[in-house]
Recover the amino acids of this structure.
């Protein structure tokens, strides 16, 4: 194990790798056992180095941002967790005609006047705030999504009628072959909570989005409206991984769960939120096993009640 640690630290060219790191500290659910290794490089070279070591040795690894859509097993993860978060949060805004890439420039000129470029670890809420400060509209929908830009690209994150697909121009990725490439949005196969990123083995390092000039007061009002809706309807006061289930076509997961008389349904420390049935929350001391059992129970009872099969939206890491 010490040999692996030496290889990882040498590849990262910095002291940014830890053993047996508790994943409770790195997920919004506040649940999860230890990862065998946890790396948080501060440079692209460090990310490339750590990934290269893992791939050359066939060692499993998993990329996370701020862990807002993740449930980690109570036993943890037998591999390396690579975090791309606070060390990668730079945001830049420029006019379309000032962008160097001709392909990005031409697309941007069709979609909007301004380009916002950000690293994968930038929080969506911070990006939305920067857009507001610049008087740019188009990203209001993401202002309350508790995730990073990298995760938003991978999942085609969306809320309140907006989604990444509507504004994304391109993503900068690290390929399986160790190359850093810019992938146009149309090649990312963005769908409902899905993209081509995982199946291609890409790691998102950053992205560019196209925004338009707008009225700062109108933008601020829209963001405040969405914030009020979230605060009033979602259980933001308790640890969770956001919406637990995907939206079934033609239905709302929360409504189906409520109709199945499952509001407040509890397994151990995990509970179907009494505020919004589409959320599973950690009432205190919940384990991953509690959450998994609750999800299974809810899925079975909703199927029995409505005939609809719910699918989890949250990602699960480790053995369950």
């Amino acid at each position: 194990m010490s040999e692996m640690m030496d290889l990882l630290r040498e590849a990262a060219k910095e002291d940014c790798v830890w053993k047996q790191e508790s994943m409770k500290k790195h997920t919004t659910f506040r649940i999860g056992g230890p990862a065998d290794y946890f790396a948080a490089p501060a440079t692209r070279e460090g990310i490339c180095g750590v990934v290269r070591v893992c791939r050359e040795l066939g060692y499993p690894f998993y990329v996370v941002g701020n862990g807002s859509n993740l449930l980690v097993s109570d036993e943890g993860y037998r591999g390396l967790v690579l975090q791309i978060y606070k060390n990668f949060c730079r945001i830049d805004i420029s006019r379309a005609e000032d962008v160097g890439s001709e392909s990005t420039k031409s697309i941007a000129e069709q979609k909007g006047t301004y380009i916002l470029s950000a690293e994968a670890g930038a929080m969506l809420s911070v990006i939305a705030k920067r857009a507001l400060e610049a008087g740019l509209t188009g990203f209001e929908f993401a202002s309350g999504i508790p995730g990073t830009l990298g995760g938003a690209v991978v999942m085609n994150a969306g809320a309140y009628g907006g989604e990444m697909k509507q504004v994304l121009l391109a993503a900068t990725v690290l390929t399986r072959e160790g190359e850093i490439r810019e992938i146009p949005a149309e090649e990312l196969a963005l769908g409902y909570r899905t993209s081509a990123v995982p199946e291609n083995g890409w790691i998102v390092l950053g992205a560019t989005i196209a925004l338009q000039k707008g009225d700062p007061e109108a933008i601020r009002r829209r963001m405040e409206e969405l914030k009020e809706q979230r605060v009033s309807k979602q259980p933001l006061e308790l640890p969770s991984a956001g919406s637990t289930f995907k939206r079934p076509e033609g239905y709302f997961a929360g409504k189906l769960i409520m109709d199945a008389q499952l509001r407040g349904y509890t397994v151990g420390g995990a509970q179907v939120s009494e505020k919004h049935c589409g959320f599973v929350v950690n009432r205190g001391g919940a384990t991953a096993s509690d959450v998994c059992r609750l999800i299974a129970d809810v899925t079975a009872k909703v199927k029995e009640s409505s005939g609809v099969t719910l699918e989890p939206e949250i990602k699960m890491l480790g053995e369950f």
The two ends are 24 Å apart (CA to CA). The longest helix spans residues 288-306. The longest strand covers residues 203-213. The chain is about 30% helix and 25% strand.
